[in-house]
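Researcher: Here's a chain I'd like modeled. Treat it as a single chain, no partners, no ligands.
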Amino acid sequence: MRKSPAQLELELDAFLAKPAPPSTKTAKELDAEIGAYLAEPEPRPVSPNPYERKQAARRARLQRASDRARREAETAHGAATRIWDAIPMGQPILVGHHSERRHRRDLSKADRAMRRSVEADKRSKELAGRAAAVGSAGISSDDPDAVRKLRQQLDKLGKEQERMTRANGAIRRNAKAGAAAQATALIALGFSPKSAELLLQADSAGRVGFPDYAISNNGANIRRIKKRITELTARATAPEREAITGQVDGIEFQIVENREANRVQVLFTDEPGKDVRQRLSRAGFHYAPSENAWQRQLSNGAWYHAKRALLIP
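Model: Modeled as a single isolated chain. Structure tokens:
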């Protein structure tokens, strides 16, 4: 028979009211453990790597641009407001009067200023959103610490997978004993009484515990991260490709792997023609003035599409 939430809460309170078992360690052993804990040095702050510094600089640059646009919007709004405040409320344009020309000019100036204010405000919000999004898309392959960070993420997901699996197993094993026994088993696994209570609340289909889709999705993320670690490790240890040289439309080019920038780059001795630029653009390459090269993130696909865009068999 399924117990009500009130009965379950009473049983949990009774369980928590029991005194904790006495420690099996001596006072000397406990003092030694406390001393070792206090003597452990605090972890040193990890300085950002070049990629993280670049991301921080980009975030700051976008935020500064957003602030400038916001100030521009406020200035334009103030200009429009001052013009409107100078016109008596409800004052129509006096056609044929000597003030008609100035009145129309003032209204036009106020309208233009308000349009600038709206556009600048929109641009400010867009830039602020882009600044907030920098670094939020996950771990980039450009990050030199990507493999280490992915392994940390993998460890965290693995522990969460084990936690969910063990919780569901404890719920199933104690199903016949009742909700109190299930809650006790969950608390023994490290769940708080409140978390245990929530896990034992049935969903619309009468299921308790962690849903199957949560475990399945977490497992898919684990497999995806393992695959990325394998790919990044293989790429780092693989020999660098030899540069490919050639000519297109009479202009010499070179396709190179830039491991430091994590890019496949196409270098030209002169500006390529429109058709070549369009083929590179369609292949996912973008011109980087800082590198004076057309480039795309390093991958086997990028190398293949660079050759294809330049008509190399």
